Amino acid sequence: MTRKRFDDLDCSVACALDQVGDWWSLLVVKEAMLGTRRFVDFQQRLGIAKNILCNRLNRLVDSGVMSKVDAGEHGTRYEYRLTDKGRDLFTVITALRQWSERWNGNRDDLRLVDRVSGHPIRQLHVEGDDGQPLTVRDVRFEETKVGR
Amino acid sequence: MTRKRFDDLDCSVACALDQVGDWWSLLVVKEAMLGTRRFVDFQQRLGIAKNILCNRLNRLVDSGVMSKVDAGEHGTRYEYRLTDKGRDLFTVITALRQWSERWNGNRDDLRLVDRVSGHPIRQLHVEGDDGQPLTVRDVRFEETKVGR
DNA sequence: CCAAAATGGTTGCATGATGAAACCGTCCTG
DNA sequence: CAGGACGGTTTCATCATGCAACCATTTTGG
Known about the structure:
The structure is a homodimer.
Chain A: H1 12-20, H2 25-33, H3 39-46, H4 50-62, E1 66-70, E2 78-82, H5 84-87, H6 90-104, E3 110-114, E4 139-143
Antiparallel strand pairs in A: 1-2
The first copy, chain A, binds a DNA duplex through helix 3 and helix 4.
């Protein structure tokens, strides 16, 4: 059986997971944010199998998260770069990173700092219209179409 | 071969993905945030196979994202509830939802609003020390241990 | 200029994960 | 008391993954 598709769930979260919700995709994107662009570099830094990496890069290109551009002068060297859509995943990856650091401890050897000030970045918070932080208990899920 | 584990990658993002990075886990958490607590309800609302749901719920309980509490008076009825760690994934799920709405269009029939004011919530932004919004190009990844 | 290595893959195989359906013991309900 | 709800477990066919080997082209070192 093929993996169940999430497109039909009428849920933006499911739709997002359909594009970047597998074990490797977000790590590839995160690695790209660190500056990695070449196939071999992704492979070595992540320790991912070549066929899987190939599959993931193709899927990320297909869904518009990354683009494949010629790097060599004559043809078979390429670079994989983030598109705007891919770079916009920065928020998602930062949210994941901060959550993991809060609950699993800091297993990372990297620290994100503002490039100009050198200060660490703020914790992400869901905020209301007035800027007040909101937890999941503070929000309501309004139905806009038909009831469940 | 067993799935490659991400624990050894010395990366908080990888560590997070190890806990909630598969196709179903985040959807189960999102469904729990909508108020779902019973096994059958998760199964029907998500359309997930029972054995997979069972496996995911157990893993989420093991990693401290959800808890399993007796609901029936005499024993074999249970409720699965989010822990504080699980509720804290609200930021991650909101980031994913907003990203998907920005780039894939709004496929959702839900709208998140502040429970008290009724206003929609703000877009999440990574911010610097001073509150200025930062893109991935505005940050630096400082190494705190040994070089790569 | 030639040999060797790098690059970006593809293929085959063994094993693990997934989805669908059937089955099962306990509990509640009419 | 019978039937259904609940929360699973088991079986099986198929798909995904990890690993290693292989390959055509391109670049690089001597």
